[in-house]
């Protein structure tokens, strides 16, 4: 259980050293720079507005990120792959960093060029559907040898368009003549027809143009899309345009691929601008005069002395380190050992410990691995988890810190899964028995069971789950007792912990003196009358204590007793908490039963060659699905047991995460020379 001790640090330096000191602090990554408090408002110290610079740096970093996405989509990184995605930032020395930083304008031009090429590709790709749509529109007119915008001659008027549905000439003439005066003549030609429309070419005298237009409206005539060339020629032009667009896209893609050698430079540049943005943010927090600057923040105690010596020896700076005040909002950093540091991610996902609270990572780890293993409980699944996470950890030496913790978490959970699988005799369910019986005629061969089989004795595992739950809950109360005593709140320790120990613990023991309860749970014992008397008295005394002290914040005795009685009613929540641990049985049985079902399905065709193929296929697919679903279920429900049943007994959280001024980069990390 280790919250890293924090110190308050104050740094005062000369303006000419400001950039170098900021660079050093960012590369060390051990100081959280805070806003200067109001006590310095009366001093002759000013801040610099760096918002515009931060926005510009973020914009340029986003340009580089987009350029890298364009490269990846058109010319994927040959060194990429599954394991590459797990890797963290690579280290480069200060000399290489400064050398490459001088070329940032050159690298940025490359990023802009990639974005410009991608824009051209997008425009060309957008043009192709438009051309294809026009071609589809012109297809019904391919047999027409005049431009679609032809309107006739000096004496004649031409109308080119379509009417809905499939119509013959007689229907069209009949519809037109109904609205035309006697003596008005038209010539109608059908260019093409389909079930949806009929394309027509209508010619009449120019002096009758308006009347013909009105008649055409009466039959639902719609003008064709205008084209200054013959439809067949227009289609050829559009097809030529599509071909040119495709060639242009291919040329742009080749230009992008030619820039793939700049990938590392663009990665560097993105990190460079991200780091600059963070520097401008830190600069905006600093107080300054014409010749000096001043900053303050927090630093882990283990780094305070070495950083102080480094700054004072290397620069003309003054560094002061002191303990923070008791009521100060000190940031929290957790540091644990090999087996428990994966729990830091679990604790952080709930909340970091607040003032006066311990880091629960160690205790969480003990129960976490036990519960996860019980829920999955299969040797085969555990081996797969250990193998998968182990390969990632061995292959990726430079793995991201967060990903490393997650891989270690599932590695240890896999080991716990192997342990409980061996205790319950499960290896891909009953795969050993099914294979031996179906394909070798040996029903006597079974995977060894070191304790018992939950499928055959579910009540035994349920009782075991309840026992673990009680231990888990009482461990939480014990931690609360420790925290109260450490804080000197001895009365709270008695009122909020000891009385509940007596109330709940006495009640549980009293239940075990009842034959009905012990028989229902299939226990091989029942406590005698003496234990019943002592435990009953203890439970009653604890209940009275809870009623008298549960509402002690009220001055009115009547309200105090009412609130205390309501607090005593909280014993029902302890019952529901204990029942929640039945999920250990439920998920464990679900994993085992589903495994058994897949094994039975795979063996349905017996010891034939196609039976073997079926078994292999069902085994691989079925167990892969079962593993994925139950690993997720075990992870979620194990977290729930920690967050609700365990942390609810002693842990409030609310701590603020330690966020040092550091290189929050994706690809490169500068190694500072001491």
Structural overview:
This protein is of the alpha+beta class and 674 residues long. Among the domains are: 76 residues, Alpha-Beta Plaits; 187 residues, no CATH class; 124 residues, no CATH class. It is built from 22 helices and eleven strands. Strands 1, 2, 8, 9 and 10 form a five-stranded antiparallel sheet that branches. α2 crosses α4 and α4 packs antiparallel against α7. The radius of gyration is 39 Å and the shape is extended. The chain starts with 5 loop residues before the first strand and ends with a strand. The mean pLDDT is 91.
Mean pLDDT reading: 91
> What would the principal axes of the Cα set say about the shape?
extended
User: Span between N and C termini?
Assistant: 31 Å
Computed Rg: 39 Å
Tell me the number of strands.
11
Low-confidence stretches: none
DSSP strand content? 5-15%
Provide a brief overview of the structure.
With 674 residues, the chain is α+β, with helices and mostly antiparallel strands. It is 59% helix and 9% strand.
Which SSEs are present, and which pair or pack?
Blueprint: E1 6-14, H1 18-28, E2 32-34, H2 51-74, E3 90-93, H3 94-101, H4 104-138, E4 156-164, H5 169-177, E5 186-193, E6 197-205, H6 209-218, E7 222-223, H7 231-258, H8 263-285, E8 287-288, E9 292-300, H9 301-314, E10 318-322, H10 343-350, H11 361-376, H12 379-395, H13 401-424, H14 431-440, H15 458-486, H16 490-511, H17 515-520, H18 529-549, H19 557-568, H20 571-580, H21 583-602, H22 609-646, E11 668-671
Helix pairs in contact: 2-4, 2-8, 4-7, 4-8, 10-11, 11-13, 11-21, 11-22, 12-13, 15-16, 15-20, 15-21, 16-18, 18-19, 21-22
């Amino acid at each position: 259980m280790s919250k890293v001790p924090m110190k308050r640090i104050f740094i005062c330096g000369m303006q000419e050293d400001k950039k170098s000191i900021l660079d050093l602090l960012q590369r060390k990554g051990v100081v959280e720079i805070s806003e200067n408090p109001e006590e310095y408002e009366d001093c002759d110290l000013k801040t610099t507005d760096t918002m515009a610079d931060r926005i510009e740096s973020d914009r340029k970093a986003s340009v580089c990120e987009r350029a890298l996405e364009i490269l990846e989509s058109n010319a994927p990184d040959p060194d990429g792959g599954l394991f590459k995605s797990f890797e963290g930032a690579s280290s480069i020395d200060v000399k290489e960093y400064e050398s490459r930083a001088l070329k940032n304008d050159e690298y940025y031009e490359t990023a802009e060029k990639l974005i410009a090429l991608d824009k051209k590709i997008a425009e060309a790709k957008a043009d192709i559907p438009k051309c294809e749509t026009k071609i589809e529109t012109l297809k019904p007119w391919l047999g027409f040898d005049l431009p679609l915008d032809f309107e006739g001659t000096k004496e004649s008027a031409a109308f080119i368009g379509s009417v809905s549905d499939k119509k013959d000439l007689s229907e069209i003439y009949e519809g037109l003549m109904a609205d035309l005066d006697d003596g008005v003549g038209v010539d109608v030609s059908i260019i093409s027809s389909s079930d949806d429309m009929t394309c027509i070419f209508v010619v009449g005298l120019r002096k009758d143009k308006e009347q013909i237009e009105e008649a055409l409206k009466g039959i639902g005539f719609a003008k064709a899309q205008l084209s200054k060339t013959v439809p067949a020629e227009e289609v050829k032009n559009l097809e030529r345009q599509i071909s040119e667009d495709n060639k242009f896209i291919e040329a742009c893609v080749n230009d992008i691929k030619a820039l793939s050698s700049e990938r590392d430079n663009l990665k560097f540049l993105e990190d460079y601008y991200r780091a600059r943005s963070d520097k401008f943010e830190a600069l905006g927090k600093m107080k300054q005069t014409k010749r000096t600057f001043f900053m303050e923040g927090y630093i882990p105690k283990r780094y305070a002395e070495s950083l102080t010596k480094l700054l004072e020896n290397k620069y003309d700076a003054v560094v002061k380190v002191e303990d923070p005040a008791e009521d100060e909002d000190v940031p929290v950093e957790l540091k644990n050992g090999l087996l428990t540091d994966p729990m830091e991610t679990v604790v952080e996902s709930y909340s970091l410990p607040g003032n006066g609270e311990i880091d629960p990572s160690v205790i969480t780890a003990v129960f976490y691995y036990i519960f996860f293993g019980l829920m999955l409980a299969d040797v085969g699944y555990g081996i797969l988890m250990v193998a998968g996470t182990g390969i990632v950890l061995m292959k990726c030496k430079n793995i991201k810190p967060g990903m490393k913790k997650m891989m270690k978490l599932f590695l240890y959970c896999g080991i716990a899964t192997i342990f409980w699988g061996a205790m319950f005799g499960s290896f891909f369910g009953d795969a050993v028995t099914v294979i031996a019986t179906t394909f070798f005629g040996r029903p006597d061969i079974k995977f060894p069971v070191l304790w018992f089989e939950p499928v055959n004795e579910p009540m035994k595992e349920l009782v075991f789950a309840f026992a673990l739950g009680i231990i888990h809950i009482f461990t939480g109360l014990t931690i609360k007792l420790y925290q109260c005593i450490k804080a000197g709140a001895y009365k709270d320790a008695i009122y909020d912990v000891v009385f509940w120990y007596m109330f709940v613990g006495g009640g549980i023991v009293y239940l075990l003196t009842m034959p009905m309860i012990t028989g229902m749970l299939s226990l091989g014992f029942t406590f005698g009358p003496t234990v019943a008397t002592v435990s009953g008295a203890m439970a009653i005394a604890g209940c009275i204590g809870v009623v008298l002290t549960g509402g002690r914040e009220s001055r009115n005795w009547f309200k105090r007793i009412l609130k205390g009685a309501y607090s005593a009613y909280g014993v029902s929540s302890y019952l529901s908490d204990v029942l929640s641990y039945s999920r250990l049985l439920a998920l464990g049985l679900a994993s085992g039963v589903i495994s058994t079902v897949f094994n039975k399905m795979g063996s349905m065709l017996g010891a034939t060659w196609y039976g073997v193929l079926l078994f292999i296929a069902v085994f691989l697919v079925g167990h892969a699905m079962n593993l994925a679903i139950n690993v997720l279920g075990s992870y979620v429900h194990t977290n729930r047991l920690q967050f609700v049943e365990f942390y609810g007994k002693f842990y409030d959280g609310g701590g603020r995460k330690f966020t040092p001024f550091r290189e929050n980069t994706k690809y490169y990390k500068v190694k500072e020379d001491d």
